[in-house]
Amino acid sequence: MIRLFSFLAALVLGAAAATAAPLDNRDGFWSEWSDATFSRAAAEKKFVILSLQSWWCPWCHVMNRDTWASADVRAALKDHFIPVHVDQDSRPDISQRYERWGWPATIIFGPDGTEIVKLRGFYSPKFLIPILQETIKDPSPVDYGTPGGPERERTLATALGDAQRAEILAFIDKAYDNANGGWGKSKLVDGPTLAWFLDRAKAGDKEAEVRIRRSLTGMIAMIDAEVGGISQVSLKPDWSAPAREFPMFAQQAALGAYARAWVLFADPAYRAAADRLFGFLKNTLAGPDGGFYASMGLAEGQPGVDKRQYARETGQAIQGIAAYYDATGNKDAVALAVAAADWALRARSLPGGGFRHAERDPGGPYLADNIEMAAALLALHRSTGERKWLAAAAATGDFIARTFVDPRTGGFLASAAPDARHLPKPIKQREDNVAAMRFFTLLAAYTGQARDREIAEAGMGYLASPPVIEAFAFLPDVLLAEEELRNEPVHVTVVGPRDDARSAALYAAALRYPLAYKRAEWWDKREGLLPNHDVDYPDFPEGPAAFACTRNYCSLPVTDPAAIPAQLDRLQRALAR
Known about the structure:
Elements: H1 2-9, H2 35-44, E1 47-53, H3 58-68, H4 71-77, E2 81-87, H5 92-97, E3 105-109, E4 115-120, H6 125-137, H7 162-175, E5 187-188, H8 191-202, H9 206-219, E6 233-234, E7 245-247, H10 248-265, H11 268-285, E8 295-297, E9 304-306, H12 311-328, H13 331-347, H14 367-384, H15 387-403, H16 430-447, H17 450-463, H18 466-469, H19 476-486, E10 490-495, H20 501-512, E11 518-523, E12 545-549, H21 564-576
Parallel strand pairs: 1-2, 10-11
Antiparallel strand pairs: 1-3, 3-4, 5-6, 7-8, 8-9, 10-12
Helix pairs in contact: 4-6, 8-9, 8-10, 8-19, 10-11, 10-12, 11-12, 12-13, 12-14, 13-14, 14-15, 14-16, 15-16, 16-17, 16-19, 17-19
């Protein structure tokens, strides 16, 4: 059976990245993902065949049309299989378990829930039917190997090993496309990669600057001329074949990158790109009640806007819009971000804290929703200077610590209470572990809480362990998390009344400074001490002033907004020595 699948895998016609296609199930062909379905499979001695799909995934639509609707395929399934359809955006716990298999992903389970076969991408009837027939004859599981090594016990860490870091850096360097810019042959909109190279460029790395500018300039071709959103991938290395798939995470990544790049490089093309992306979020993906829609697809099937509203995607939108506001000062942007946060707190908050994914979460709550909303609330605190958002971010952090931290390894579990008992042990998804660790690192700077710092260090211990380092090679996100944990964030505090225009101008200049790892605070003394009042700011009788600080040193008071970048640059150089 292993040899058969090795042969068939070479004949798969295609794969796509994405979320689930709108599906007509009026004929009752598809069953739901549930323990009841697996109980039925056991009782009837049938296999369960899962189609994990995505709204904006073109090959999902093609497979629904050409394969799952095929009379021959349905005849092959009829007596031995129970077909199950899952929209991967609606079930992060299932999606993250099988994300390595792309969308559509097709998984065949035994009656007892054993994974037998995992198929990546589109399969036509010609190639799917022999697999179904072979599974019936020989249901032994295919051995796909185990990526990475065994999990290790919890350890506090602040850094990768030198050899680990060197290997990751070498792989990233090798992946760079010298002919076209970007990394790899298919051009993905990857937030951590963009952020890592923007950080390097800000620190004075000229080669990094050349690479990120060339990549961002090429990536503009992926912004759709019709709708203004950015495709998540170009299928050709020269950026000329953007798939018309517009998931929220790609909008967040690109909007934040172009906003920072505009401030850093003063290139009007980057400002124009950021403006278009913000317009897409505001005019196309923003719901009327404050939340954001999940995605948009305009490729095969043209499903349009996926109007389901998830806490995860709303949190991603808030983060992207907050970065845009920090760079541009656009008041419409901050109003949109605040409305979205209010919606999430109103419509997606859980009674015991944290956030649910949708109206109901059969396998939740999920880490993805909580970490994206926690990061969004912390970003909103920074953008507005309002303490209520920091309190909400810290409360969500408390929920994450109680609910998702694995005490044995220090990593973060993808789901708190998976509803399918037949599944293997709970998983830890790398990207969300990186996001969680980065959130707790920055939260610790804002709250001064040792517990937040310890959670981040334990998270770094997991990221530096075999399940991550040995299972993946392209890891700019892990480098980014390590860099932030090892260093202080840029720290600037504006001391002055919130209703004083001079204070507001100073704070806007602090926000505009183009580093994402930034602790910006606004101290209006009428509100009491700052939550982490670790600096004794002097009185400045001439009015509002800004102070750039480290743990051991603060600048002289700055009263001219235009002087803040130079003061922060001077501080960064001092920290680097």
